[in-house]
Amino acid sequence: MARLADYFVLVGYDHDKRGSGDGQGRIIQRFPEKEWEDNPFPQGIQLFCQPSGWQLVLERKSPNFFVAVLTDINSERHYCACFTFWEAVESSQPQKNHANDVVDDEDSKFIQAPQLFAPKSLVLVSQLDHTEVFRNCLGLIYTIYVDCLNFPLETVIGNLLTCIIPITGGSQRTISLGAGDRQVIQTPINDALPVSGCSVALLLKQLGINNVLDLFCAALTEHKILFLSSSYQRLTEACRALLALMFPLKYSFTYIPILPAQLLEVLSSPTPFIIGIHSFFRAEMQDLLDVIVADLDGGTVVIPECIHISVLPEPHLFQTQTALSMVLDPELEYADYAFPPSSMSVSSMKFQDKEIRAVFLRLFAQLFQGYRWCLQIIRIHPEPVIRFHKVAFLAQRGLLDDDFLTKVLEGMAFAGFISERGSPYRPCDLFDELVANEIERIRLDEGNPQRVLRHVKEISEQLHRNENPYPAVAMHKIQKPTEGSHLRLQHNTFPHLDEGTVQWIIDQATAKLKNVPPAVKAEMKCMVPMGPPSAAIIDRNGIVLTNSARRLEVVRNCIAYIFENKMLEAKKLLPAMLRALKGRAARQCLTQELNSHVLQNRAVLDHQQFDYIVRMMNCALQDCTPLDEHIVAAALLPLVTAFCRKLGSGVTQFAYSCVQEHLVWTNLQFWEAMFYTDVQNHIRALYLEIDGDDFSETGCVDIEKQQRSALEVAAEQLRMWPTHSKEKQQELIDKEESTVYSQAIHYGNRLTYLLLPLDTSKNRLLRSTAIGDMESVSNSFVTNSIAGSVAESYDTESGFEDAETSDVANSVVRFINRFVDKVCTESGVSNDHLKALHANLPDIVQMHIETLDAVHRESKCLPPIQKPKLLRPTLLIGEELIMEGLRVFLMPDGREESVGGSQGGPRILPAEGAIFVTSYRIIFKGAPTETLAGEQTVIRSFPVASFTKEKKISLHSRTDQDVQDWLQLRSSTFQLMKIAFDDEVASEMVEIFRKNIHKLRYPQHVHSTFAFTVGQSPKLVLEPKQKEKNPSLRTMSKTIMKNAKKTIGRQYVTRKKYTPPTWDQRAAPAHGDHQDQISVSEEMEQSALTLSTTMRSSDKSTMSHMVERACCRDYQRLGLGTLSNSLTRSKNEPFRITTVNRMYSVCRSYPSLLIIPQTIQDSTMQRISRCYRQNRFPVVCWRNSRTKAVLLRSAGLHGKSVVGLFKSQNASAAGPSQTDSTSLEQEKYLQAVINSMPHYADTGGRNTLSGFTSAHMNSSDSSDKQRQPKIGVLMKQVMGGKEDMSSTFSRGVLGHRARVITLANPRATTKGRESPQGKWGSIRGSGRLSAYSLNSDVGIRLAGKETLSPQANGGPSDSHYFRQQRAGLYIIGEKSQLKGAKQDPLQQWEVVPIEIFDVRHVKTSFKKLMKACVPSSSKPTEPTLSYYRSLEESDWLSQLHKLLQVSVLVVELLDNGSSVQISLEDGWDVTTQVVSLVQLLSDQHYRTLEGFRLLVEKEWLSFGHRFSHRGAQTMASQSSGFTPVFLQFLDCVHQIHLQFPMEFEFSLYYLKFLAYHYVSNRFRTFLLDSDHERIELGLMYEEKGERKNQHTYKSVWDYIDRLSKKTPIFFNYLYAPEDGEVLRPYGNISNLKVWDYYTHETLSEGPSYDWELVYGRREHMDEGERTDTMAPQTQRKIIWPCYDNQNKMEPDAISKLLEEMQLLECELGQVPDKWKEAWDKIKTTQRTESKQEGKHLSSSSLLMSSSLSHHRRSQCVYLHEAAVGSTLNLSLDTDSSTTSTPSSGAMGRKSTSTLYSQFQTSESEHRSYEGILYKRGALLKAWKPRWFVLDKTKHQLRYYDSKSDTDVKGIVDLAEVESVTLGTAAMGAPKNIEEKAFFDLKTTKRVYNFCAQDSQNAQQWIDKIQSCLSDA
Predict the structure, then answer these.
(1) SS3 1232
(2) Residue 1217 has pLDDT above 80, yes or no
C-alpha cells in the first residue's frame, strides 16, 4: 500500500523578486509542512511548474496540466503533477522593468496600467504515476475554487493526502475527496511491467517506425537523446514510451522528461541522457554536436554526423520493422488486393500501444535467448553473487563481431538486468515466460506474418490485462468547472488554506493506520526456468568454409598420426592442418581431440610430438579475432599444463612455456571468465556432494541430480536457505568461501605459468603490453560486489632479492595481485584469506622462476634441429663473393603466386637458405620450408647496383626457428627480398652485411663499379682507403684533356684529378695501343681557336674514330652529310657535319660531331648555344627521306632567349644589343632549317596553302592525299586543349581556337571516306576511325571561315596569312617556359607549348609503380589500395600515354612535311625519349636489332643522357635518387611492340634484357653521363682493343651479338616489315598494358638476364669447374608462374622445330646450321613455294608468310581459312608467357594434391645420389624394390615406389643413423644376387636391410651414405 499523494504544494509568482530580470516562482503553501520520513520533499519544484520561466502575461490563459518527473539522490522518481492557472495581478503593485510590460513610462496619458496576469500552480508530488487521477484531483480543487462550490478546500486536500491505495496486485480502489466526487483506481497486476497507456502508440504515430527504432538503438547503446515539443505532456509521454520499449532493461542514466529553462546547461553533460525540452529553446541546441534530437511535432530525428548508432543485427531488424508495420498499418497487406476484405479491424490506440510493446518484447526474447545458460553463479550464500559470461554468450550466437549486441551487453542497463534477473530463485514475469517457453515458437513463426501477428496479439493481451485488470470500470464522477469560467473578471485569488485543519486530518489518518496490521505482500518466488540453450555456433560469413568436414578430418588425422608416432605422415599433413586451423570449427575440433589424449591431467610426449603440438596450439591462438581468442585460449588452458616432455632427470617442460607470446594471457577479462567458470563448477559439485550425503535415494534420482545445472542447484539452495539453522548456514558459507579461496590459489599458479617467460631475463610479453601499468576493463557484471580492495602492495623484500629477475617477478606479482583483488572482492572472500593470498604469491612466483631456470638450462642442451646445408650460388666469371652466406629465411611478400594462397599451388615461400653478397649481385639461395615443396631450389637475386631501399621491419610470424632481425631490400629491377636472419647470425654480421651493400651500391667513383672491377680483387669494396686506379682504362684521355685545357682557357674542366699510375703499371703495354688514342696536332689546336668552319686534311686521321662512331654511320645513311674536305663537299647538301664541338668546348654533354645547316658558320654556333640551357643548341638528328623534313633536338631556351626569339621584328630597337644579334642568328639558323626542305625553299619562304599542297601533291603518290591526319586534334590534345590558345599561336592550323575546334569535329567532312593507309593510333582512343583524312579543299574551306576575324595578337587580318596550312618548323617546348612569348606572324616557325611531366614526377611515379607491382605485404595498409588502384595512383601509365601522344604528334608533323624541333627541359630526359620514339615510329631501320642499338648509342649515349646521375650510380649522385627515364622509354617501345608485333626484328625479351642491364652495372655501356666523360676515362674506344678475357664483356652490345649467334632469344619470329611503314600506336591508357617485366619472376633460377648463369652454364665450364656427375635425370616437372621459366620448359613452336632440326642434323652427321641460317633458309624456301603455288598456300608456308598486313596489330599469327581453319598461337618471344592459357598441359589447373607433388628437381645438390634398392619390410619381412634418393642437403634417405613416383613412401633421417655395414642374405631375399650386395643401415630406432643389384653398387651406396654422415 502507498499514499496516492505525498505532498500538495501551492506555487505562485514571486512578486518580491520582479525587478531582477527573469521572474521567479515561490512556494506559497505546502502540505504537510513536516516531511515524511520515508520520502523527503524534493527541492526545486518551482522550476518545474513553469519550465519556460515565470512570466506575467497580458491576457488570461486557459489552465493547463502536465506531469514532470524528478529523480532524487537515491534514483527514486517523483512524479510532480502541475495544474497551472492565471490570476490577475493587483494593480497597485509597481509595473516597471518587466519584459511583457508595453507601457511607456513617459506616456502620462494613461492613468491606469494594463491588467497583468500571474501564473499559479497546484502541484501534487507522488511516487506513483497515475496521471489521470492527478489531473482529476487537481481539476476538482480548481473547480471548487473557481466555481466557489460549497466544499472546504482543506478537507479535500486533507483527504487527498491521506488516501492510501495498493501499489500492485491488480486490485481496484474507489476513492473520494469529499466533494461529491468518485474515482476508481486500478493497480497493475505486476508492477515489474511498465504502464504505458497510449504513449508508445503515440510516439510511433509522431515519429514513424524507423525513427523510433533509431532512438531505441541509441538509448540501448547509451547515446544522448533529446525530445522537442511545444507540449509538456507530450514530452513526458514520449520519454515514458521510450522507457516502456526498453523493458526488460531499465534506463539508469539521467532522465528528465521536462527540463526547465534555467537548467539547460545539463545538456552539455558528458553522460548519456533522455531529456525533453520545449521547442521554444530549439535555437540553443545548435552547438550540441553529440546529441540525437527528436522533434515530436515535426516527426523528425536528427542524428549528428559524428555519431554512429549501432543498429539491430539482421534478421532481427527486418523482422521488427515488418511486425511494426503490420501492427500500425494492417491494411498494408491487403492494399494491392483486387477484393480487399470488407471488415478491417484497426485496433484502438490503447491496444495498438500494447501490440507495439509486444513486438519489442519478442525482440528482446530473441536477442537474450539462452542468456541464463551464460550466468555463472559464484556464491550462493549468504547472498547470491552472479556473473554474466559475455564472450560465451556472443560466441554461442555467432555474433562475436556484432557491434550492437556487444555494446548492449557492456551497458549499464544490461548490468542492472543481470543483477535484477540473474537470481535463480525469484518471482517471474512475462519476459521470463517468453524466454523460457516461447523461443521455439518465435523461431518457427519466422517468415509467417499471420502467425507472428497472432503471437503479438497474445502477448499484447497480457500486457493490456496487466494495466486494466477490470474491464467494466465504474463511472468516474468528477466536478468540472463551467465553460469559460477562467475568463471571468473575478474574483479573489486562490484562498490561503488553513494549515491546522489539513494537518489535523493527516494526523488522524496516520494514527488510524498505526493500529492497522501491516499488509504482508506474499512474494510468489519460484525457480526461474532456464529456457532452451542457444543455437549452436553459426559462422555467418562462411559456413561452408569453416565446417567443411574435410578440414576437420585433416585435423583429426594429423593429431592421430602424431600420437601414433607416424611422424612422416604427420609432417605431410601438418601444412594443410595449420591452414585448416584458420577456421573456427577446426580450432574447436583441435581442442577436443587433444583433450581426448590427456590422461589424469598429464600427457608426456617425445620431443617431436611436443614440437608439433605446440605449433598447433600457437597456430590456433594466432589466427583468431580477440573475442574468439578467449574461447580458444579457454579450451587450451587445461591442455597447456597437461602436455609436457622430459628434458632430463627431474626436469619436465610443459607446453605453457612455448605458447606464452599471445596477448590473451595478459587480458584480465579472460582470466576472470575462466576463474568464474571454474568456481561455478566447484560450487555446483560442492552442493551435489552435500545433497548426496544427506539423502541416500535411489540411483535414478541421483542421475537426475547430477544433470542439474549450477543455477538449478543454486535455486534449490536459496529455497532451502530459510529452513536451515544458523550453524548450518554458517557451515555452508565457510565451505563456499574455502572453495573460492582454493580456486584463487590455483589461478595464482596458472597465471604464473603463463606470464613468466622461460628465459626470465627476457620478459618480452609483459614489457610489450606494459602489464604492470595496464588497467584492463573488467568483463563481469557482479551483483553484490564488496567495494574496496584490501590488497597489500607487494614489496621486493617479501620473498627474494635476485636483482636480475626481480623486475619480471615484480610485474607478474603485481598483475596477479590485481586479478586476485578483483575476483576475491567480487566473490566475497574474507580479508584474512585475501591477505594470506597476497603473502603467498611472491613465493609461488619465486619457486616457479627456479623451476623455469632448470627447464631453460636443459632446453638449451637439446640437440639443435638439423638445419639444411647452405647451397652456394653459381657466380659469373669475374664475379667474386664479398660475404659468405648468412643463414636467412626468405619470407613471402605481397605477391601471391609463391605462397599457395587463393591461387592454389605449392607454398614455395617462406624458404630457408642463405643470402650472399658478391661484387655484382645480392643472391638468396635456399629451399622452401614447406615439407611438400622441399625438393626445389629457390633463387632470388638482383644486381647490387639496382638496390634502391632498405627497411627494417618487425613482423609476427612463426617459422620453426627464432628469428631476430628482418630486412626488406628493394631493387629497381622490380625485385623485393624480405629476409629474416636466423638466430645463429649475430647482429654484428647483419650490420656488416648492410654496410657492404651500401658500399657496393654507392662507390666513391664509377671506377669501383662491377663493370670495371670485374675479375679484380674485391678489396676495393671492403677497404675503400686502399683504393687503386687502373691506368689501362684511361690510356687515351691524357692527350685530349691536356690539349683541350690548353686550347680553351675556360674554367669548366673541373674533373677530379686522379692519382697517376705506379711505375710498374706504366711499364705494362697500353691497352689497345695507338688505335685508342686521338692524336691532337697543333693544327687542330689552331683550328679550334679560330673556330674554323672547314676541316683540314691533317685532321682526318684524328677524326677517323669519330667517323666510325655509330651516329656518323647513321648520318650518312640519312644523307645528312659526310666528314670530308670542304673542297670536295657538295654545296647542294643542305646540312653538314660540324666539328665545332670536337673538344667538347661548346657543349660538354653533346657528341663531338653534330649536324647543322650548311649555311651556318661554326662561329655562330658558339653564340647560339648560350641561349639554351646547358649550351645544348638545336642540332639535326634525323631526316624524313620522303618529305625531307628534319627532326631537331635541343634543350629549353633560357628565359631571356625566349623573349628574344619571339619578339616582334617591327619593334624599333634602341641599339643592336648582344641579345638582339644572338636572336637574329637564331632566326637565321631556324630559317636555314626551313629552307633546307625543298617545297619550302621553292615557294620563296612564303608557305602558302596553294604552294604547300601543289608541291606536296606533285612529290607524292595519290594515296598520300589520305595521309594527312588531323594534326589539329593531336595538337589540341597534346597541349591540353581547354585553354584559349590564340594568344600563343598566330596562324596555321593552330591559328585560332575556333579553327582547332572545327578541325576536331570532323563528322561533316569525313562521311564515307576510308581510313588512311599506314598505321595510325588514336590519341583519343576511338579506334581506327579517329584517323580522319584532311583534304586540301577542306583545309581551304575551313581556313576561309576564319578570314573575317582579326588576329588575337594584333597582326593583320589579311586572308593571305590564314590560308597557310603548315608552318615550316614547329618548336615543341614547355608551356611553363614559353609564358608570355608572343610571336610575329611573319615568322615561319611556330611554337607548340605542351605540358610535360617533370623528372621528379618520374621518380615518384616509379616508386609507386614498384610498390604496386611488387607489394611488400599481402594485406595493404589501406584496404582501398588494391593492385589496380595503386597502379592508377602511380601515374606511370599516364606518363607513357603522354610520351606516346607527343611522339605521334611529331611523327604526323614530320610525315606531313614540317620540320620539328624538340626543346624540352635540359634536353637530355624527355627530349631524348620523344626524339627516340619519333625515329623508332618513323624509320623502320631503328626497329631492327642493329638499328635499335644505333638509336640508343646515338640519342641516349652520345647526346648525353645522364645515366650515372639518373641511376644514382655513385656516392655523388646518391642524393638525387633513382629516376628510370630510359626504362620509361623501353616501356613505350614495349607498348608499341605489343601493338605492332610484326614490325620489330627484336623480341620483347631484348627490351627486358636492356631494362635489366642498364641498371645492373655489369657492362660499361650505360655508365657515365656523356661522351666527354667516357673519353676522359678512356672508355670510348677501348672496345677496339684485344680483350684480355674473352668471357668478360665490357659492352652490352657485344654480349648481345655473341648471344644472338648462339640462340634466337632476341629474335622476333613474327618479323615481317612493310617498307616505309610509319607506326601510329594507340596511346590511350586503356590501350596500354602493364609490362610483365615488372611482375614476372622465376624463382627456380633467378633473373634470366645473365645468360651464362641460367642457360649456358655448361658452355663456359672452365677446367677448374667440374659438374656433379651424379646429377639425376628426373622425370618430374613443375611449371608454375612464379617458379619456372615457362618458355624454357615449354618453348614455342618455332624454337621447338629449330631444336628438332638441329637434333636431326646431328643424327645424320651433318654440321648443324646456326639457327639464323636455318631460319633464313626456311624463309626463302617458303617464299619460293608460295610463289609457285599461287593463291593456295600450304600450311607450312603460312608459318613464315609475311603477307599478313591486315592482322599486323594482333598478338597471334592467323592461318589461312582455306588451308587450316584454326589459329596457331605463337609466343612473341621466348621469354614472355603466352596470353591465352591452354586448357590442358602443364599450365592447366590440376588438383592441389597433384600440384604439390609435381616439383622437378632443379638442382643436383638436392639429390646427391639415387637408384633402385631392395628393402626388407619391417612388418611382414618381405623384400620390395624401391627408388631411393640420398639427399645431402636435408640429411635424408628418401624412398619412393618407383622413379617417376611423386609421393614419398618413407624417410630415413641420417641424423639417427649409427652405422652402415655389409649384411647377409636373409629369408625371402631376391635370388641370384651375390652376398656382398647386401648391406644394413642401423638407426636409433631400427635396422634397415637393403640389397643392391651387385656388390659394386652396394659399395657405392655405402660410400655415399658414409660421406653424407661425415659431412653432417
Answers:
(1) helix
(2) no
- Give the gyration radius of the chain's Cα atoms: 49
| Torsion 998-1004-1010-1011 (CA) sign | positive
Per the CB < 8 A criterion, the answer to whether 720 and 694 are in contact is no
> What grid cell was written down for 1165?
654556333
The pTM score is: 0.52
Chain CA centroid to CA 1174, Å: 45
C-alpha cell at 135: 489531473
Say how far apart CA 260 and CA 574 lie, in whole Å.
70
- Which three cell numbers, joined as nine digits, stand for 1042? 691536356
Q: How confident is the model at residue 1424 (pLDDT cuts 50, 70, 90)?
A: low
Task: With H, G, I as helix, E, B as strand and everything else as coil, classify residue 119.
Answer: strand
CA dihedral 956, 962, 964, 970 (to 10 degrees): -60
Alpha helix ranges (H) inside 125-198: 131-146, 153-161
Q: What is the enclosing helix (H) or strand (E) of 841?
A: helix 831-860
pLDDT-based confidence at residue 361 (cuts at 50, 70, 90): very high
CB 1183 within 8 A of CB 1483: no
> For residue 1378, how far is the Cα from the chain centroid?
43
Instruction: List, in sequence order, every residue forming a beta bridge with 1505; answer none if it has no partner.
Output: none
Chain Cα centroid distance, residue 1495: 43
Q: Supply 742's cell numbers.
A: 582454493
Strands 1836-1840 and 1823-1831: antiparallel
Whose CA is closest to 297, among 313, 316, 279? Answer: 279
Angle at 1703 between CA 1698 and CA 1704, to 5 degrees: 95
Q: Per DSSP, what are the bridge partners of residue 1839?
A: 1828, 1850
Query: How far is 1399 from 556, CA to CA, in rounded Å?
Result: 60
**pLDDT tens-digit map of 1464-1504:** 988 889 999 999 999 999 999 999 999 999 999 999 999 99
User: Which phi and psi angles does 1524 have, rounded to 5°?
Assistant: -85, 70
Q: What is the DSSP letter of 1497?
A: I
- Distance CA(1642)–CA(908), nearest Å, equals 12
DSSP characters for 1469-1486? Answer: SHHHHHHHHHHHHH-GGG
616 phi and psi, to 5 degrees?
-65, -45
H runs (alpha helix) in 169-221: 199-207, 209-220
DSSP string of 1846-1896, one letter each residue:
-S--EEEEGGGEEEEEE----TTPPSS--GGGEEEEEESS-EEEEE-SSHH
Q: Residue 719 is placed in which grid cell? A: 529455497
Instruction: Provide the pLDDT for residue 430.
Output: 84
The residue to which cell 538503438 is assigned: 217
Report the Cα–Cα distance between both ends of the chain, in Å, rounded: 94
Grid-cell match 518580491, residue found? 16
Nearest to 375 by CA among 531, 486, 517, 521: 531
Dmax of the chain from CA atoms?
Answer: 149
Q: What is residue 1906's predicted lDDT score, i.e. its pLDDT?
A: 86
- The pLDDT value recorded for residue 1514 is 86
**Three cell numbers, residue 589:** 575440433
Q: Which strand (E) or helix (H) includes residue 31?
A: strand 25-31
**Cα 1716 to chain center, whole Å?**
50
Tell me the pLDDT band of 1388, cut-offs 50, 70 and 90.
confident
Q: Are 1368 and 1298 in contact (CB under 8 A)?
A: no
The number of residues in the chain equals: 1912
Task: Report which DSSP code applies to 199.
Answer: H
Closest CA to 1077 of 1034, 1108, 1118: 1034
Q: Specify burial of residue 1704 (Cβ count, 10 A radius: 0-12, 13-18, 19+).
A: exposed
Question: In the predicted model, what is the mean pLDDT of residues 1414-1426?
Answer: 71
Report the sign of the C-alpha dihedral through residues 1374, 1375, 1376, 1381, in that order: positive
Nearest to 479 by CA among 122, 150, 185: 150
**Before 1216, cis peptide (omega within 30)?**
no
Please give the Cα distance from 1462 to 1473 (Å, whole number).
10
